[in-house]
Structures are given as C-alpha cells and as structure tokens.
Amino acid sequence: MTDSESEGSLVLAVDCMGGDHGPQVTLPAIEAFLRRRPGVSVLAVGQPEALEAEVARLRRRFGGRIELAPASQVVGMDEAPTSAMRNKKDSSLRVAIEQIKAGRAQAAVSAGNTGALMSIARFVLKTLPGIDRPAIATVLPARGSRVWVLDLGANVDCTAEHLRQFGIMGSLLVSAVEQVERPRVGLLNIGTEDIKGNQVVREAAALLRTTDLNFVGNVEDIYSGQADVVVCDGFVGNVALKTTEGLAQMLALILREEFNRNLLTRLMGLAAYPVLKHFKARVDPRRYNGAVLVGLRGVVVKSHGGADAYAFGQALDRAAEAAAHRLVERIEQKMAGAWPRAASPVTEVSSS
Amino acid sequence: MTDSESEGSLVLAVDCMGGDHGPQVTLPAIEAFLRRRPGVSVLAVGQPEALEAEVARLRRRFGGRIELAPASQVVGMDEAPTSAMRNKKDSSLRVAIEQIKAGRAQAAVSAGNTGALMSIARFVLKTLPGIDRPAIATVLPARGSRVWVLDLGANVDCTAEHLRQFGIMGSLLVSAVEQVERPRVGLLNIGTEDIKGNQVVREAAALLRTTDLNFVGNVEDIYSGQADVVVCDGFVGNVALKTTEGLAQMLALILREEFNRNLLTRLMGLAAYPVLKHFKARVDPRRYNGAVLVGLRGVVVKSHGGADAYAFGQALDRAAEAAAHRLVERIEQKMAGAWPRAASPVTEVSSS
User: Fold this and answer.
1) Over the stretch A96-135, which tens digit does the pLDDT of each residue have?
2) Which residues of chain A have a CB within 8 Å of the CB of B190?
3) Nearest CA in chain B to A235
4) Measured over all CA atoms, what is the biggest interatomic distance in chain A, rounded to whole angstroms?
5) Which residues of B touch A255 (CB under 8 A)?
6) CB A325 within 8 A of CB A179
C-alpha cells in the first residue's frame, strides 16, 4: 500500500517515550515501518539516553531515514494537560508536534496522554481556519466494512455547527486515508426519522443537508455498515467507544470461561481453535489503532497507550497515509471554499 | 422465585395485541406465567375475536386467574405517539394501562410501540410527585453480574436534577425487583475523575453526592460490574444500548461466517457446539427483556417488539416483581420524604 509518489519526502515525528511501554514498543514499530515504507523518514523524539543506541543501530540500516530529535522530558500518562503544557515544554510529546510546526515533519504520532496531546497540538499547531474545534476520529470494524467515528471525546459540549464541521472533516479524512471519493456521512442519532434526537442533533442534520457531503441521514447503529463516517458529540462518541470496548472484553471473558469450564470444553476449544483464532484476528482492536486529531495545521495521530509494536505500527501507517494524501490541505481548501458557514456565536477566522 | 406473600392479589394487565407477533407470542407467554406464578392473575387485553377462544381455554385451566379485557383497536408499531393518543383511545395498549388507573391491575406489560406506551402511560397514570420525567430502565449483563441502566431514551435533553431523580428511581427499582439493599449507583461519564464530562454530568455527580444513595461516582464502562445502576441521559443511554446490540449482532455474524467458511470449519463448529450454545445462553438478550417505565403512578413494562414467548415471559416476571415489591410506593415515599430537591426551574408538585 506504499505510495512512493506521494510519500516523496514524507517525515514522521514519533514520540518514542509515550505510552505504557515507551521505546520498547515504539522503536521496534519504527523499524518495521521503515522497512515497509521505503519513501518515509522518521524523527525519533525522546530522551537521548533511552534512544541513542537503538537509533544508531537503525541508522546503520536505514541511513538518513531515521534521526534522533532530543527531548529531555516525558509527559506522564495521568498528568493533567495544564501541567503538561506549563511544565513539560521539552517533552517528547511536545517536541514531536513542534517538528511539524518547524516544517521538519508532516505528521506526529504519540501513544501518550490524550488530553495533553490534544491541548499541546492545539496550542502549538493551531486550528485550521473555519474549524472551531479539532476532533478525534478513529476507525472501527463495521458490517462488511469499517466505519470512522468522530468526535471521540475532544469536545463534550457540541453545537450543531461543530457537528457539521466534524462531518466535513470526517469525509475528507476518509477520502485522504482510504481514497474513497464520496464517503457516506451519517449522524449518530437514536432513531432514523428527522424528528428524533435532541435539539443539537436535529439542527445538525439540517445543517449537514445543506453541505455537498454525501450525507445519508441518521444512523442508529455505528456497526451497521450504513455509513463510512459517523458524526457525534465527543461525549456520545466516547460512550459508544467505551461501551464497545467494555462489551467486547466481557464477551471475550465469558467465552474464555465457557471454554475453560472443564477438560471436555477445553478439548472443544482446541478443536475450534483455528476458527476462533481467525475470528479474533478479524476483530482485533490492534488493527484499528491510531486515532487522528483532525482540524489542526498538521497531522497528529494518537496511539492507544497500551499498544504493542504491531498496533503502534498501524498508527504510524495511518499518519503516513493522512500526510501523504494531504489531509490538512484538503480540509483547509474545503473550509476556505465552497461551504457556507452556519451562523454561530463563534468569531469567524479569516482563512489564510 | 415466586413470592406468594407479596403477590397476594396481584393482577397484571397484559396488552396481548402489541409487538411484532401479537397473541401468538403473548398468550403462550401468559400461560407459562400463570403456571409458574400461582399468586398472580392476568387481564388479557385486546380484540375479543383474536383472544376469546384461547382465553376460554386458559380459563378452564386457571379459572378466575385469567380474564379478557376487551379493546377494539391496536396501536401500530410505527404509529406516531400523538396519533396513538388521539385516535386510539380504545387500543389494547391504552386499555391495559387504564386497568392500573382503575385499580383493576397493579402493573401493565406491552410489546407495543415504545413512544406511544410512554406518552399514554404518562397521560393516563401521571408522573409521581417529585419526579419531573419518567425514565426507561433496563437490565443488561455485566461482568460477574448484571447492571440496570436508565434512561434509555425517554428523555433526550436532561438536566442534572433529572439525572439525580433517575439515580433515586434506579436505586429503588433494583431494591424492589432484586431485593438488593443499597444498590451501587454510578453515573455514566467519559472519565472517572470528577472534572471529566460535560456540564450536566458534572453537576449531576455533585447532586448525587448529596443524596443518601450508595453513589459510587463516575462509571466509564457499563459492563464493568462496578455498579448495580448506571444513570445517564436518554440520548446517551440509547446510543449505548444500540451500540451494544449492533456490536453483538456484528460479532455473532462474523463468528458465524468463520464457522461456515468450509467443511472443516463447520466440523470445528460442531465440535465446539455445546460450549458455543452455553455461551449464547449466558448472553442471550431474551433473558434481559422487559424495560421498566419508572416514575409513573403504576408499573409499566415494555417488552421488545420482536420478543418470543420466552422473552415476553421475562417482561411479565419483571412487572410482577416490581409490583409485588411495591416499586411505585417506594418511589413515592422516597420523593415525599428524605431528599432535598435540587433547585430547578420546574414547578414543585406537592406530594399527595
């Protein structure tokens, strides 16, 4: 899936210290990534003492395609975003994002603290003209396909206009990352009729109909496969995500309990093992790792804190795809052009 | 689990026409219910021509414990609540609820149209003093246990005070239906810290702390088993429910696909069949059928429209439990007594 043409001189800044496992996971993921994407380079950001030896080894193999970008601090996984902003100006998370701002990278990836990543990315990169609030988008499996959902928690009190912007950004994100021409955009609601839902959602549906998006209306079930993008308030999106994770974990637990009931059931599990393994691979959450922070002047991708090297590699791939297909420029152009902006109390930012 | 003492002269009014299957499902469910709960009687509500013969047969078996309550109309599953209110004054759904109002039954059960059921129940029975909005509560499987969730869609724009009332009603519901003394009440939020979530949820957490409920704070995952009751806005609750249903259906579909891949995988499925069957039984949604409309002057239980006789029977049992353990009186007493009411723009209703 490498697209060497568009990846020309693509550089990813990777926060190597973030996440539960730090360099133990990020460096092996980077090595595999450099191997599979010959057109992309990596800036490995973090504490030199933790990275030096391994980066030197990778340089012998990949030459100038990997470089160390020193950062003396690390943002804690539970650290308050305000504290990270104030006291961690030389953190790997922040330095990675600053590489985009400085023009040395087109995308940044971190498995660190979500709140700190969003706050620092907004502060350092700024929001694109016409976008009031950046959003977090992720991809999930869906019937016969997959679905992108946004927002997943960056914005807990959204207006209809915010949801309209999420629809536009989500559509452009899927176009960029998956080269889908007119992604179907749905609005998460508790009924399919227009009269359903709360005030904000009803207004958002009306606004989305005024855009030139391929808006398919209300969607009740994000897993139905009816839409390529599902738009929702960050509170609702986060509940849907946590419900998904919680239910999947509970079902896996119960299934394991049933197969571990006794010797006979264990034998049955053994007999069905190849099928169960294949099933597990199809719904493996690691494949869906890598949430994109959209609406910023740069591509920022958030990996799960607990990601392993395979999962972290997925986040690296997603960042490379988004940057290679110029996600930021697409959103910038769209917001500067065609769409009329809905009346909103927020001051209009003139597009540059 | 029959509690003959408290079921003394308990009567359930059952809408026999509602749901996708009508009398075909409701009557066999009633027969099994009368058999397993010797202390309870049933008013079978619906069109005499559809019910007469079967009710006569049941009367020969159960004597005065079953009686036909005629209703000439049926509310359509997709009919607008306003239309049902205006044009279906003699519907089985409405007549069933009127049995409570008339003192001929203590609870009503219907598999009909949710919106119409809620509207008609509110109109006919009225809301209890101190309760601004009735809510819909259901039980779901959770880790090592089960969890009750409310609201599931009756109220899409809730205030913190509404959520406080849902907490009180949910707690009393679990006490009544399951004889749990101090159910753990959690607030659905997108983080466990107090500062997380939107404005309404943060205020609701503060209000819930002022009650004498066993409030355990924010809950991120309804399936975690951390709470007996999880309180949320109806929009969010409905999204969580639909996400659950959608994900479960998708996973079941993928698992089936994997086992149907070829002859070998089918044989593996056969080998593991007893375990898979047991697993399915444990998470069978039919076991959790029967959502309770709480906050009304009467027990009203909503069955899934597509319920089979087993599932409909679960809804009947839930209604009998709630009525036998005086759910309505418990809520009435609590709201009239101990708890201070939070300031709210809604006019205080004096308790009777």
Assistant:
1) 999 999 999 999 999 999 999 999 999 999 999 999 999 9
2) 153, 156, 234-235, 238-239, 242
3) B190
4) 69
5) 279
6) yes
State the ipTM, two decimals.
0.85
Distance CA B99, CA B105 (A): 5
* Separation between Cα atoms, residue A209 and residue A202, nearest integer Å: 11
The dihedral sign for the CA sequence A80, A304, A161, A122:
positive
Q: Which CATH class is domain A132-287?
A: alpha beta
CATH class, B1-130+295-352 region: alpha beta
- DSSP codes of every residue in B259-279: HTSSHHHHHHHHHTHHHHHHH
- B36: burial class by Cβ within 10 Å (0-12, 13-18, 19+)? middle
Show the tokens assigned to B16: 């026999």
Phi, psi angles (nearest 5°) of residue B90: -115, 35
Fold entry, domain A1-131+295-327+338-352? Rossmann fold (3.40.50)
Question: Which residue in chain B has the smallest CA separation from A254?
Answer: B279
**By the CB < 8 Å criterion, does B255 face chain A?**
yes
Counting other chains too, the contacts that B154-158 makes at CB distance below 8 Å and 24 or more residues apart are B154/B118, B154/B234, B154/B293, B155/B233, B155/B234, B156/A190, B156/A197, B156/A198, B156/B233, B156/B234, B156/B235, B157/A198, B157/A199, B157/B233, B157/B235, B158/B133, B158/B200, B158/B233, B158/B234
pLDDT at A6: 53
Order of strands, sheet of A107-110, starting from the edge strand that comes earlier in the sequence: A66-70, A40-46, A10-15, A107-110, A299-302, A291-294, A135-142, A145-150, A229-231, A184-188, A214-219
Touching check for A39 and chain B: CB below 8 Å? Answer: no
pLDDT in tens, B201-252: 999 999 999 999 999 999 999 999 999 999 999 999 999 999 999 999 999 8
For the record, the structure tokens of B68 come out as: 């036909």
Contacts of B340 (CB under 8 A, 6+ apart): B210
Which residues in chain A show pLDDT less than 50?
Answer: 1-5, 342-352
Domain boundaries, chain B: 1-130+295-352, 132-287
Q: Which residues of B300-339 are buried (b: 16+ CB within 10 A; e: fewer)?
A: bbbbbeebbbebbbbbbbbbbbbbbbbbbebbbebbeeeb
Q: A224 and chain B: CB distance < 8 Å anywhere?
A: yes
Give the B window 269-288 contacts with A, CB below 8 Å. 269, 271-272, 274-276, 278-279, 282-283
Residue A55: half-sphere exposure toward Cβ, Cα within 13 Å: 23
Contact between residue B112 and residue B75 where contact means Cβ atoms under 8 Å apart: yes
| Secondary structure E strands in chain B | 10-15, 40-46, 66-70, 107-110, 135-142, 145-150, 184-188, 214-219, 229-231, 291-294, 299-302
